[in-house]
Structures are given as C-alpha cells and as structure tokens.
Amino acid sequence: MSDIWKPSVTVAAIISRDHKFLMIEEETSEGVRINQPAGHLDPDETLQQAVIRETLEETAHDFTPTELIGTYLSRYVSPKTGLEVTYLRFAFTGELGQAHALPLDTGILRTLWMSHDELLASQARHRSPLVMQCVNDYLLGKRAPLSLLYTHPSALGQGVQ
Q: Residue 49 is inside which H or E element, if any?
C-alpha cells in the first residue's frame, strides 16, 4: 500500500480596521516573519473554532469570523532541510473583539497594523506568499458565507464508534 499524501490544514484571520490589517510578527526557522493571525487546525475543532483560537493565542483578542475569503493551496520547501509541506489554508474575515491581558503564543513577537502599501513593501518578510494573496482577495471583496463550511460531528469526536 502506498502512502497517502495529506496537506497540512491551516486557518488565517484577515482583520481590517481603518485601511490597515492586523498582522503578527513571529520568530520562524528562517528568522522574523510577518503573517496574519494563523495556525493549524487541531483535532476535534471546526475551522471556525480554529481561527477563533489562533487569533486569541496570537493577538490576545477575541475574533468572530463572519465570512470565508477563500481557500488556498501552497507548497513550502524548507531551505534548511529540503522537506516539503503542502498547506491548505482557509482565510476568514470577521469582527475583532475584546483585548485580553494574555501573553502572546510562543514565537509571536508582537502584533502590528499594516497598510496594503506596507505589506507590499515587506513581501520578502512574509511567512508565506498566501499572506499577500489573502489581503488582495479581501480588498477585491471576495467573500463566501460560513454556511458553506460543514463539520460532521464525527470530526469533533462525537458519534465515533
């Protein structure tokens, strides 16, 4: 039997206020990079729960997803190890809520608000080419209702025999 290829599922929050985007600066194996609040889907959670959790962990803010901006597929090859990872990213927009007095997740250096022009000028520091693609799609008005996303209870550890 051959191995089955599986992408790594991630979520991202595209949050805009006053023509700027909420970004995070994080330490990675390639140095300090800029990203949206984003991370991996954990077992037993929906995509919406994942983006809410990741935004809280990385920005110390509540987030309520209201629409899906898009789904994105990309491949990353580590310059150090040569290992390849394919990412399947679900990008959401929504409402930024209350700030909490919480420490930011490990590796997150700070949050910052950046304009489209600032993001364009800093592309060499983006964690992924999807950072700019998601912002551009947001600005183009690409939106889909969250009702397009369905999570069967079995994916949440319910009803598994």
A: helix 47-59
What is d(CA 8, CA 138) in angstroms, rounded to the nearest whole number?
A: 23
- Side chain identity at residue 1, one-letter code: M
SS3 content of the chain, % helix, strand, coil (to 5): 25, 45, 30
Alpha-carbon distances of 120 from 28, 101, 106, rounded to whole Å:
20, 31, 26
**Phi, psi for 110 (deg, rounded to 5):** -170, 165
Instruction: Give yes or no for a contact between 132 and 35, defined as CB atoms under 8 angstroms apart.
Output: no
CA distance linking residue 86 with residue 128, whole number of Å: 12
Give the integer Cα–Cα distance in Å for 70 and 134: 8
**Prediction pTM value:** 0.93
Predicted local distance difference test score (pLDDT) of residue 29? 85
Letter string b/e over residues 75-107, b meaning 16 or more CB atoms within 10 A of that residue's CB: eeeeeeeeeeeebebbbbbbebeeeeeeebbee
C-alpha triplet 72, 76, 81: angle, nearest 5° = 165
Query: How high is the mean pLDDT of the chain?
Result: 94
